[in-house]
Design goal:
0% strand, mainly alpha, 9 helices
């Protein structure tokens, strides 16, 4: 009796033609998950690492296993919204950090500015005031140092710079961070616990002075969270509708 041969068509999955090729050749691998999404354009801007977004997108593809263009686009939209949230958080951190370096801003870290300026004086006493005073010191501190230590009163630039450095480390810095030093003691001689207290004080002042800015950023993050929730619900709805249609 002649044996009948039954032809079984390749399994059809959401990969379409690619899955059919994979069924014929087990060694063939599907493209990387980054290929998902016809509308996928990496939203990373200058200064951001596009690979970080790619990793986020891949993780969401693995989590949701999108099937078809509609689900691909929905997953990409979720990735984009989460990326915007990450960007907003980084912007907040960067803004607060930048404020601490700006002598014109209330959040300026005056203690750090004085320390940095004293280092400039030690490394390049001839040009430190001209190049760095306005970048590291508030105007009142510049005026104080110029009036108290006229360059003409010192035989050499090195002697003048050392006098200014001593004033910064024994008088100005301790006054700013609220610490009492013993005679001959400098700010660099302080214990780690004293430094932590100074840092905590600066952080507290920054939060108080930028309360409105914080509140604005928190509102923005809440809006992004709400958008992410809507996008996830939309993806779940799409999956449910497609299941019903099947």
């Amino acid at each position: 009796m002649r044996k009948q041969i039954r032809l079984v068509p390749p399994a059809r999955t959401h990969g379409g033609r690619q899955d059919a090729v994979a069924a014929r050749n087990p060694k063939w691998k599907q493209p990387n998950a980054l290929k998902h999404g016809v509308f996928s354009v990496n939203p990373a801007i200058l200064g951001e690492d596009p690979r970080e977004f790619d990793a986020l997108h891949c993780a969401l593809i693995d989590e949701w296993q999108p099937s078809g263009l509609t689900e691909d686009d929905a997953v990409f939209s979720i990735a984009h919204a989460i990326w915007c949230k990450i960007r907003a958080q980084r912007f907040l951190h960067g803004k607060l950090l930048a404020n601490t370096f700006d002598p014109r801003h209330p959040d300026f870290d005056e203690a750090r500015g004085l320390l940095l300026f004293s280092r400039h004086l030690r490394s390049e006493p001839e040009t430190a005031f001209a190049n760095y005073a306005s970048k590291r010191l508030r105007p009142d501190k510049i005026k104080h140092l110029k009036e108290k230590f006229p360059r003409s009163n010192y035989p050499s630039t090195e002697d003048w710079a050392e006098a200014v450095i001593t004033e910064i480390r024994t008088e100005l810095l301790p006054a700013i961070i609220g610490l009492d030093l013993q005679p001959g003691e400098e700010i660099d001689d302080l214990s780690d616990s004293a430094r932590r207290v100074a840092i905590e004080m600066q952080l507290t002042l920054s939060i108080i002075q930028t309360r409105e800015f914080f509140e604005h950023e928190l509102d923005q993050l809440e809006r992004l969270d709400a958008r992410i929730i809507r996008l996830v619900k939309n993806l779940v709805h799409i999956k449910a509708m497609k299941q019903m249609l099947r």
